[in-house]
Design goal:
Main location: cytoplasm
CATH superfamily of one domain: RecF/RecN/SMC, N-terminal domain
Subcellular location: Cytoplasm
Organism: marine metagenome
CATH class of one domain: Mainly Alpha
Distance between the termini: 14 Å
Number of strands: 13
Shape: globular
CATH topology of one domain: Glutathione S-transferase Yfyf (Class Pi), Chain A, domain 2
Keywords: ATP-binding, Cytoplasm, DNA replication, DNA-binding, Nucleotide-binding
Order of helices and strands: EHHEEEEHEHHHHEHEEHHEHEHEEH
Structural class: alpha/beta
Number of helices: 13
Largest sheet: 6 strands, mixed
Strand order of the largest sheet: 6-10-11-1-12-13
Family: Belongs to the RecF family.
């Protein structure tokens, strides 16, 4: 597809969202919607077995990258495909890669209706948002995150063994050190990324509103009390590590009793405030949608500055709940970026000056066809 704005037009249920989801999977190596990727497979394919592939080629000024995801499934023996053989393979430029080496070769910023959960949802949803953002920009972060999760899992197992009288408390020393070290790297990376995101999200949000004030604040859980608010703005990773190490001894009895690690970046949160109030408690659905859009626009700038590559913006049905003026503002902000993929149920939802510049494709029953009439206007 060419640079600029591309519109995928079609009725709901015909595959528009699936197309954008596939593009996003080429950036993050997994589905943003489903934790069970078997559910991505069409039932007719599941019944007969077969091979499925997502393939995309990204071109920048100095490089071309081909990202490929392959799925293989054996024929179904019943209506339930949960237990059928299912294989997934990842390749970059034809070479097999692990997920950690796959993520970030192509960069895509994806907006969907469920992104309102960044504001309304649990702290885990906001942590996931940050983790995906940073992993696209810094592949080393994903490896660090995997190490940290392994440390937490091992430490939790040890805590339960101590509680059950199988292991000794002295064995925690090693895992406490690893938790503090790996956790500090994650917290420091997230904090710096939120600072960068803040620089772009605040003005983007102001452009989309009548001057409402958006604030993002990373809230780490690195002290013994969950009520303590710690400002880590001037801390580096070593200082954060020391803070975690200091808190752990006073939490040991509680952690052993519960069998879980109660501090560290797996307990952190991103607080989003609108005009001084927590957005999840006080903002309307429309205001939260605007916040989510501002975050995505800021995310695109963040990825560009971090990687030197311009990401594709994949915006799924962003216009339907906006008034005409807000649609113009959103499209003006989005189309400042090199390539924008947009879905809508009808093209008339686009203001004329954007419609004239757009490449338009029709999506029907899973088939994508280029609209020659709209294309002739380009």
């Amino acid at each position: 597809m060419r640079p600029g704005l591309t519109l995928f037009e079609g009725q709901n249920g015909h595959g528009k969202s699936n197309l954008l989801e596939a593009a996003y999977m080429l950036a993050i190596a997994k589905s943003p919607r489903s934790s069970n990727e078997r559910e991505l497979v069409n039932w007719s394919v599941a019944e007969t077995g077969g091979h499925m592939q997502i393939l995309g080629v990204g071109r920048n000024a100095d490089s071309t990258v081909q990202a490929q995801i392959d799925f293989d499934m054996t024929a179904a023996e019943s209506s339930n495909n949960a237990n059928h053989a299912f294989r997934k393979g990842l390749r970059i430029n034809g070479i097999k890669r692990s997920a950690t080496d796959f993520v970030g070769n192509l960069n895509v910023v994806f907006f969907e209706a469920e992104d309102l959960e960044i504001i309304y949802g649990s702290p885990g949803r906001r942590r996931r948002y940050l983790d995906i953002l940073i992993s696209q920009s810094n592949p080393a972060y994903l490896k660090s995150l995997q190490r940290y999760r392994q440390v937490v899992n091992q430490r939790n197992q040890l805590l339960r063994q101590i509680r059950d009288g199988i292991s000794e408390e002295s064995e925690l020393v090693f895992w406490d050190e690893r938790l503090a070290y790996e956790g500090a790297l994650i917290t420091d990376s997230r904090r710096r990324s939120v600072d960068g995101l803040n620089q772009h999200a605040v003005p983007a949000h102001q452009d989309l509103t009548n001057g409402d004030k958006l604030e993002l604040e990373y809230q780490p859980r690195i002290t013994a009390s969950s009520k303590d608010k710690v400002n880590i703005g001037n801390m580096n990773a070593e200082m954060i590590e020391k803070k975690i190490e200091t808190a752990l001894p006073s939490l040991q009895r509680r952690e052993i009793a519960q069998g879980i690690t109660v501090i560290g970046p797996h307990r952190d949160d991103l607080e989003i405030r609108l005009n001084g109030n927590r957005a999840d408690n006080f903002a309307s659905r429309g205001q939260c949608r605007t916040i989510a859009l501002a975050l995505k626009i800021a995310e695109a700038v963040f990825v560009t500055q971090s990687t030197g590559r311009t990401p594709v913006l994949a915006l799924d049905d962003i216009l339907s709940e906006l008034d005409i003026e807000r649609r113009k503002l959103v499209l003006e902000a989005a189309t400042k970026h090199e390539q924008v993929l947009l879905t809508a149920t009808e093209r008339a939802i686009l203001p004329d000056n954007f419609l004239e510049k757009a490449d338009i494709y029709t999506v029907m029953n899973g088939r994508v066809t280029q609209d020659s009439i709209a294309n002739a206007n380009n």
